[in-house]
Write a structure and sequence with these properties.
Blueprint lengths: L5 E8 L7 E8 L4 E5 L6 H8 L7 E6 L2 E2 L4 H4 L3 E4 L11 H9 L7 H10 L13 H13 L5 E5 L7 H18 L2 E5 L3 H7 L2 E6 L2 E7 H7 L9 H13 L1
Parallel strand pairs: 3-8, 3-9, 6-7, 7-8
Antiparallel strand pairs: 1-2, 1-4, 4-5, 9-10
Length: 245
Amino acid sequence: MSAIPLQVEAVSIRHARPWLLQGVSFDVRPGEVVALLGRNGVGKTSLLRVALGLMPAAAGRARLFGFDAWRERARALARVGVVPDAPDAPPELDARGLCRLVSALHERWNEEATRGRLARFAVPERTPFARLSRGQKGAVMLALALGHEPDLLVLDEPTLGLDAIARDAYFGELIAELSERGASVLMASHDLPLVERLAERAVVLHDGAVFADLAIDELKARFRQGDEPLDLETAFARLALRRAS
C-alpha cells in the first residue's frame, strides 16, 4: 500500500448550506508536519472527520496509507493516532483503565512510554476522567493517541483551553515524539504561535476551497512588507483581510 500517510483527493462536503467545501486536495507526506488553517466555520473539523473515515465525503475521497478512509476505516486507522478538539472518554474510567481499554484495540502498544507521558503531565492515574482538569484530559488524549506509536498523528485544536504551562508541556511532548520517530502530523489549530514552531507547511481553507498550500516561511514571506520581521499570526491576519476585501 501507499507510503503516503494522508491523501485528500478532490473532497467536497455538504452541510446545511449547498457546499461547505468543494474540490479540496492536499497530502501529508512521511515525516511532515502540516497545519490546516482557516477561520471558524470554514470546515476544518469536517474535513478531518472525512480524512479519518468518520463521515463520507459528498464527492472525492481520503486515503490513509493507501486505504480508503471511509470504506476501509479499520485498516486505514491502524497507523493513525487522533486527538479530538473535545476530550472524550468514559467518564468513570481513570487513566490506567483507559490505557487498558485503548491498548486492547491495537496490535502493538507501548505501555511504558504511555505511562511515562502521563507521569510527565502529572496526570493522577486513579482519578476518574470526568474529574480531571481540561489540561489533564488533553494530556490523557495525547498519551492514548501516541500509545500504539502511530505513523500519522491528527490533532484538532490540541491546545484549546490549556493554560500556558500545560500548553508548553504539550508542545514539548509533541516535539520529543516527532524527533524520536519522525511521525507525520496534521493539525488544525488557531494557536498560530504553536503552528509556527511545529509545522513546516500550511494548507489554508477559505470560501470552500484551498486558498493556499505553502511552506510556513513562504506564507510569511508573501505578506511581509519590506524587511520587517513577520510572525505567522500577523501573516494570517493580513491574509484574512485580503480575502475579505
